[in-house]
Design goal:
Pathway: Nucleotide-sugar biosynthesis; UDP-alpha-D-xylose biosynthesis; UDP-alpha-D-xylose from UDP-alpha-D-glucuronate: step 1/1. The protein is α/β, with parallel strands linked by helices. The protein contains 13 helices and 15 strands. The strands form 5 sheets. The protein has a 7-stranded parallel β-sheet with strand order 5-4-3-6-7-8-13, sandwiched between helices. The chain has a two-stranded antiparallel sheet with strand order 1-2.
């Protein structure tokens, strides 16, 4: 018991002995005295102070030098734009129409547009963009500085019409039939896809009306989903064989719904109906253009249209074919005039429909004489029976386009026809050489 008492007593005494206040030896305590604050202690470790000083030096140098560099660059760039070598600042796109006008990449003549100044570059899809009218429209849009996506199944379109744009970063080409849906993100849709000449739309009339109905439905559905503005290129054929002359947009037409041309005529009338229903029912922004006879470079050589027929036949030394008595009339506009009208309609605030055509009226006999005068005065004329449902008169009233779009055609037939002849002559010559004919 005494021993147990002694052990407990000794244990209690050991607990009461205070622990020594002297800290154990540490080499770090010699390097950094405890009197320094912990933040300074951290900075002084491992050369952190050196890195902080270097960072401050670099930052101050940047803020001192950068304003002077930007001022110098802005002062140097101004004289270059106004100097004699203006091509460095303004990119002039080759005129696709051959009409003497220049199209600049930047309309204000400045190579670089500051943020917040100038119009937003649009992303635009053109269905049928490798065709005759479509390819000229694409050239115009590219020249305006927009990004363009061409959709074409190449039934009547040709890659040769857009090959000069291959490699342009603002141009895309998609081989696709608009009868099938497609998903894109664009701001505007120019819907031109459809065979437009009698030879082509009569070749497969069911396909023609499917293109007009299903193709238009698909592109309107796309416009609805993405909030794009939609332009339908309709046709003067919606007036049929008109009982009103000249034709105004208020005229409802005189069309044979079961004739050989009805796949095109009624197809376009249905496309106009769909367009207006999407506009009224779903709030889609739409525009409708009714295009009258158009001519120019890149037309198909043998598409059955009167201007291309006459020109190709005269160049080949063949008789020019007139169907009927030659007294039926047409109005002919040059393709660049039409393209200007389409862009004015798309960029305007009016739905339409709008007649886009040249009110200058020619009989087939008068047109043949102009072609003879331009190509070969010795060319002959051959008469054949008229085709079914061929309109006797066709002349647009363009008062509405003049007043609301500030548009009217500027190029006369005698001025525009030689430009088309040069294009046809080169293509027919190459075609003959490819066949081995000399």
């Amino acid at each position: 018991m005494k021993q147990l008492h002694k052990q407990s007593t000794s244990t209690r005494k050991e607990e009461e002995i205070p622990i020594s206040q002297t800290p154990p030896y540490s080499p770090k305590s010699l390097k950094h005295p405890r009197s320094l604050p912990r933040s300074l202690n951290y900075i002084l470790k491992e050369q952190r102070l050196l890195f902080i000083l270097v960072g401050i030096l670099i930052g101050s140098t940047f803020f001192i030098i950068q304003p002077s560099l930007s001022a110098l660059s802005s002062s140097d760039s101004r004289p270059r734009i106004s100097a004699q070598n203006r091509e460095l600042a303004v990119t002039t796109v080759r005129n696709p129409f051959g009409d003497g006008r220049n199209y600049n990449k930047y309309s204000n003549g400045v190579g670089r547009v500051p943020v917040g100044i100038g119009a937003k570059r649009k992303r635009i899809v053109v269905t049928g963009g490798a065709g005759f009218v479509g390819s000229h429209l694409v050239d115009k849009l590219i020249a305006m500085g927009d990004d363009v996506i061409v959709i074409d199944n190449f039934f009547t379109g040709r890659k040769e019409n857009v090959v000069h744009l291959f490699g342009n970063p603002r141009f895309e080409l998609i081989r696709h039939d608009v009868v099938e849906p497609i998903l894109l993100e664009v701001d505007q849709i120019y819907h031109l896809a459809c065979p437009a000449s009698p030879v082509h739309y009569k070749y497969n009339p069911v396909k023609t009306i499917k293109t007009n109905v299903m193709g238009t439905l698909n592109m309107l559905g796309l416009a609805k989903r993405i909030g794009a503005r939609f332009l339908l290129t309709s046709t003067s054929e919606v007036y049929g064989d008109p009982l009103e002359h000249p034709q105004k947009e208020t005229y409802w037409g005189h069309v044979n719904p079961i004739g050989v041309r009805s796949c095109y005529d009624e197809g376009k009338r249905t496309a106009e109906t769909l367009t207006m229903d999407y506009h009224r029912g779903d709030g889609v922004e739409v525009r409708i253009a009714r295009i009258f006879n158009t001519y120019g470079p890149r037309m198909c050589l043998d598409d059955g249209r009167v201007v291309s027929n006459f020109v190709a036949q005269a160049i080949r030394g063949q008789p020019m074919t007139i169907y009927g008595d030659g007294k039926q009339t047409r109005s002919f506009q040059y393709v660049s005039d039409l393209v200007d009208g389409l862009v004015a309609l798309m960029e305007g605030e009016h739905v339409g429909p709008f007649n886009l055509g040249n009110p200058g009226e020619f009989t087939m006999l008068q047109l043949a004489e102009v072609v003879k005068e331009t190509i070969d005065p010795s060319a002959t004329i051959e008469f054949k029976p008229n085709t079914a449902d061929d309109p006797h008169k066709r002349k647009p009233d363009i008062t509405k386009a003049k007043e609301l779009l500030n548009w009217e055609p500027n190029i006369s037939l005698k001025e525009g026809l030689p430009r088309m002849v040069n294009d046809f002559r080169n293509r027919i010559l190459n075609e003959d050489e490819g066949k081995g004919n000399k």
